[in-house]
Every structure is written in C-alpha cells, then in structure tokens.
Design brief:
Elements (H helix, E strand, L loop, with lengths): L6 E5 L3 H13 L4 E6 L30 H8 L2 E4 L1 E7 L4 E6 L5 E5 L2 E4 L3 E3 L12 E3 L3 H11 L6 E5 L3 H12 L3 E6 L10 H13 L3 E4 L3 E4 L3 E4 L4 E3 L2 E4 L3 E3 L2 H5 L23 E3 L6 E2 L6 E2 L4 H15 L13 E5 L2 E7 L2 H6 L4 E9 L10 E9 L5 E8 L3 H13 L4 H5 L15 H13 L5 E3 H11 L2 E4 L3 H5 L7 E2 L18 E4 L4 H12 L5 E5 L1 H15 L13
Parallel strand pairs: 1-2, 1-7, 2-3, 7-18, 9-16, 10-11, 10-16, 11-12, 26-30, 27-28, 27-29, 29-30
Antiparallel strand pairs: 4-5, 5-6, 8-17, 13-14, 14-15, 19-20, 21-22, 22-25, 23-24, 24-25
Length: 568
C-alpha cells in the first residue's frame, strides 16, 4: 500500500456502506477496502423486499445486486458476509470481528473506519412477539422466510402491524398474493407523513381493495391463530408482519464512546465524521440536519444515505461537499394510487410553532379530453408572510411523484410561491395540463397568502357542519346536485347566484363548494366584491369531501353527511 493510499474498513454492506466502498475505489485504485456485513448478503435492494411476496420479483436472489465474489473481481473490494464487528479500539485503530459461521474472532486494522450499521426493526415487548410466525423485515433472508411461510396452504390471514411505508407495501403485496390482510395501526391513520385530509384517499383505496384497517388501536398480544388489540378485538392471523418502525443501530457506537445525538442516532459533523475524526458514519444510524426546522432529526431513506456516502468518501480524500440537510421526500404506491410528500406536514409546522397556511387543490393529471385523465389531490404548505414553501403532499393515479419532485427541488433551493407559480413545466395533453396542478396550487396559495380569498379544506368541513352549523352553498348545476350533495347545503348554481343574492346571509360565514373548487372559487371572489366578505371557498370541494368522509362513514358505521358519494 502506497503512502497516499489508505485502508478503509466499512461496517455494514448495504446502501450506505457499499456506496462508500465503491466511491473510495473510484477515488483511489490503490486503497485497501474491506467491508464487514453481519447478514448473508451485501448490496441488496432492501427497498424492493416487499415486492417478492406478490411475485413481482419472482426469486429472492434477484434482490441481491452484487455478490462478494463480483465485488472482489470487478472492484477489488473485500466484502465479507456473516462477519460482525463487535468492538473498536479507537487508539490502536483496529476492529474486532466475529466470523459468525466459523465462530472465530480476529482483529483488523484501519486507517479510516466507516460505520453504516443501518436501523433495527422494532419488536414490541408483548406476549407472542417472538413466535415463529412473527416476522420483521430488514434483509433478503427475512423476506425469503416470510415468503416461504405465507406460501403454505394453511396461511390465509396475515396481519401487518404498522401503517407506514413498509407496512403498506407489505399489505399490498400480500393482498396481491391472495391473502386476507389486516393492517393494525395504533394511530388514527396510516402514513403519518400525510395530513388527515389527504390520507383519507388511501384509507378509501385500502377499503376498496379489501384490506381491513384497524386504526387507533395498539397491538397487545400475538397468539398462534390471531392477534389481540387494545380494544379487545381479535383478528385471525397465521402470519404477523411487524412494521411498526425502526431504531438506529447504535450499539457499537455507544459501546466505544462515540457521541450520540439528541435524537438517539450517531452524531456526525457536516462531513459525516463522528466524534472520532478517523471514524465516519452514514445511513439510517446517523443524525441528520433538517433544512426546514434547522434541527437534528432522523431519516431512514436510501437516497440521503447514498448522498451521505459519497460526501463521506470524498472527505476521506480531502474533497469537501456542501451540506444541504434533508427535507424528507418520499413516495409509495397503494394499489392504484400513488402517494408522495416532501418537506413538513401540518403536525410538524404546528410542533415547530411555524407561521404557516395551506392550499388544497384538485387538478387533472392530464387534459380532460384524454381517456385516462384522472384527478390529482395536492396540498401545499407555505410560510406566512414570506411565501416560502414548507411542504407538499399529493395523491392520485397519475404522475404524482413528478409533481412532488418539482416542489422538493424548490424547497431545497429556498423557493417561494412566486417561484412555483412561474415554473415553466413540460406540457402535452398526454402528460399534463397547460396550467399544471403545481402551478395552480401556487396560484391558489398566493390568493390565500395575499388574503384575496379565504379557504378551508375538506378536513375542516365536518367540524364546521356538525359543530358550527355552517351555511354551505353548492354552486354546481342542479343535475350535479341531484346526483349527490352535502346534507343541509343550499344549491345556488354559479349560473344563478347573481340573481339569488338575497338568499345568502351577510352576517355569518358562507362556505362555497363545487366539484373540485374552481367554480366555487370564482363565486367566492365575486361574492366578496358584492358585499359578502364572509364568503369562503372549500378547497377540495365535493370530490375531496366524498373521499374524505367515505372510509370512516363505512368503517365506523357513521351517518354520512352526503346523500351520495361522488368519486369521479
């Protein structure tokens, strides 16, 4: 080994760790690179694990992207599986390694050590949590065991505990595999990255696809034939998937005295060095900086891990990269729907005491004339009074992730509503509308920010109707009204409202809606100029409200506030 070359030892051989190793090799052909992975595989696609259950990925071995043999031949990287690093001598710069197959222990020297141990699935401390038919999902071996178990003829009912990304992907793929699937979630909704008014679209879709949702109910016991939740309900299950979250794997870091951050993850500086300058850390185990809150946080995602890995490897060789922090962009498919989000949600804005407002719009993903044109629901959060974009969430059948990626780019660059309004985006009737839903959301948000119009969303409407006896005006045409309307609402169509102003009260708020919020917006603007300053638009309108109400109306046997739902 030459004087300028280094011996780099990496702990953890998945996304972050292998990315460090690959980048080091590109920077230094003479470097000695050793990767220790305690699992059976390195460089596998952990994000694709659930898709093996449905057969979309037919064979488990297809999830393995690179073997130790190929890494050695192609990249001269010494990757050793079933090797667990159990100790670090920071003064001597050695690691103690346990070969899990031979039960031998040995020491390995390093010039630079990189920790990428990932995160550990949480297993609750309840009766039955360690039974043979209870599984967590971390690697290829896990998903192979799950697949072999659920493919047995006697396994007809599967309970997935946890309604996050992994839980929903597991549920969908198990349903495609022909299983009766129940999702148990201790909170009152799945996918808490989404706000309550947007997530109801996913609840609706899961219900329609035959996935049972048990919400706001915690798992208390796992038996041989089923699970029991806090409410006392028992759900049949011959297999249980625990997807209730992960915790950063910090055991080794804490053992050797590395600094742990406020979030319980490994502290790193802007170059991903730990409190020991010879040790770096990347991936799910580290604490990251949230660009929007300016606070430390945790983010277990592959994209940020890849960027961290490159930055760490570069700094090992004296190349500095800027530190932008994270904003938390994500996407998941839930049967026919795609749900994506970026930045902060409302709960986080409230928790951080931010001055913010919101806009909820529904637009078509492509021109209405196209036979496959579908609605797209988009919610935008922005700072008041600056108009800085804080976050966005969208659900739809079309290219939802494209829209959220555009907004994520704006957030990373400190963009405002004006920037978003003026974006020049690709347009063809096959792909979008001339005024894309992204541009339209910015226009609506600017109207709210500038107090040119007042808006509530469909998430506010039930409370307004039930608790405040809100005066609701439906501005759709009579033929639309007859196909379904909000109970107690007054039908004053857009084509008639100027001749019926005497039916509209001036001494109380009046809430206007149409199908998606465009016609009612125009009516509200006109009413505000005609002496009705309390006229308010309902973002999402009847289409959004139908989706918002449907799941809980059905699941909770609740009296509906609409005569008929309209989902078109």
């Amino acid at each position: 080994m030459s004087e300028v070359s280094k011996k780099v030892v990496v702990v953890g051989g998945v996304a972050g760790g292998m990315s460090v190793a690959a980048r080091v090799r590109r920077l230094d052909e003479q470097a000695e690179i050793v990767v220790f992975e305690r699992g059976r595989h390195v460089s596998f696609s952990n994000c694709a694990l659930p898709f093996h259950l449905s057969g979309m990925i037919p064979r488990a071995e297809q999830l393995v992207l690179m073997t130790p043999e190929l890494l050695r031949k192609r990249h001269a990287i010494d990757a050793r599986v079933r090797h667990e690093v159990v100790d670090i001598d920071r003064a001597a710069r050695t690691v103690t390694v346990h070969n899990l197959d031979s039960d031998e222990t040995f020491e390995e020297e390093y010039d630079v050590l990189v920790l990428s141990p990932g995160a550990v699935p949480i297993r609750p401390d309840i009766p039955g949590a360690t039974a043979e038919h209870v599984f967590t999902v971390r690697d290829v071996t896990d998903i192979d065991h799950i697949k072999r178990h659920v493919d047995q003829p006697h396994v007809t009912d599967v309970v997935v505990v946890g309604g996050g990304y992994i839980g929903l992907e597991m549920a969908e793929n198990l349903k495609h595999a022909g299983k009766n699937v129940t999702v148990v979630e201790m909170r009152d909704q799945v996918l808490t990255r989404l706000d309550e008014d947007i997530v109801q679209l996913l609840h609706h879709e899961l219900l329609d696809q035959g996935v049972r949702l048990v919400l706001n109910d915690a798992l208390t016991k796992i038996g041989e034939a089923g699970v029991t939740v806090a409410s006392g309900t028992t759900v049949p299950a011959q297999a249980v998937i625990l997807a209730i979250g992960v915790r950063p794997e910090t055991t080794l870091a804490q053992q050797v005295g590395l600094k742990i951050g406020d979030t319980g993850a490994i502290w790193v500086d802007r170059h991903y060095r730990t409190s020991d300058s010879a040790i770096y850390a990347v991936g799910d185990a580290i604490e990251v900086f949230n660009q929007l809150t300016h606070k430390p946080s945790r983010l277990a995602m592959a994209g940020p891990a890849q960027r961290q890995a490159r930055a760490a490897a570069d700094h090992i060789y004296g190349v500095s990269q800027r530190q932008t922090g994270v904003i938390g962009s994500s996407v998941v498919r839930v049967f026919s729907l795609t749900a994506a989000s970026t930045g902060l949600n409302e709960a986080e804005c409230i928790q951080e005491h931010m001055s913010y407002d919101k806009a909820y719009v529904i637009g078509q993903d492509k021109v209405n004339l196209m036979p496959d044109s579908k609605p797209m629901h988009l919610k935008l959060l922005f700072e008041v009074p600056t108009g800085r974009i804080l976050g966005a969430q969208a659900v739809g059948v079309g290219n939802v992730e494209k829209r959220i990626d555009v907004i994520a780019t704006l957030i990373m660059m400190g963009g405002t509503l004006e920037d978003m309004r003026d974006l020049e985006l690709c347009y063809s009737p096959l792909y979008s509308t001339a005024k894309d839903v992204v541009n339209n959301a910015a226009l609506v948000a600017l109207n709210v920010l500038n107090q040119e119009v007042h808006q509530v969303t469909v998430g506010d409407l039930r409370r307004l109707i039930v608790e405040e006896d809100a005066f609701v005006i439906d501005v759709r045409e009579p033929v639309e009204w007859e196909r379904g309307h909000i109970k107690g609402a007054v039908n004053i169509p857009m084509s008639q409202f100027r001749d019926r102003l005497d039916e509209i009260p001036k001494d109380r708020p009046v809430y206007c809606h149409c199908r998606i919020g465009q016609r009612s917006y125009n009516v509200v603007r006109a009413l505000n100029q005609l002496g009705f300053p309390n006229a308010v638009n309902i973002g999402g309108s009847y289409l959004g409200f139908s989706h918002h109400e449907y799941f809980h109306d059905v699941a909770d046997d609740r009296e509906s506030l609409v005569t008929e739902y309209n989902f078109r």
